[in-house]
Known about the structure:
The protein has helices at 2-29, 38-63, 66-85, 91-119. It is mainly α and 124 residues long. It has one domain. It is elongated.
Amino acid sequence: MKKAWDKIGITLSSLCIVHCIGLAILPVLLPAVGHFGIGFHLSMSFLILLTAPLAFIPGYKKHGLSMVIMWAIMGLTLVLLGTFMEEKFAEWLSHSVTIAGSITLVYAHYLNIKHSRHHHCCDH
């Protein structure tokens, strides 16, 4: 199940990336779309914040790879920062920070999966 949480985390972070990029492009085509961003960002940040510990804490307890935790904390910090920057700073800036955080989280989940497969300690 531990790898499943990483895969869910990758999916959520990837959705966040697609959403942020889409919000940068779609308002040009459909101006009303730009007004549906903040609720999605808050919801996704909440889901990402709930999912991340379920993936990273058990892996860390098993193999103690602090590098994965470092990437995860950095990614979570950026996602939350980008979310809280929404409507307070330029949209491109808050979305860029959120995208950077989501990419960082995808990388952390990838490392967690890769390490789990390599050591076969977390396949449950």
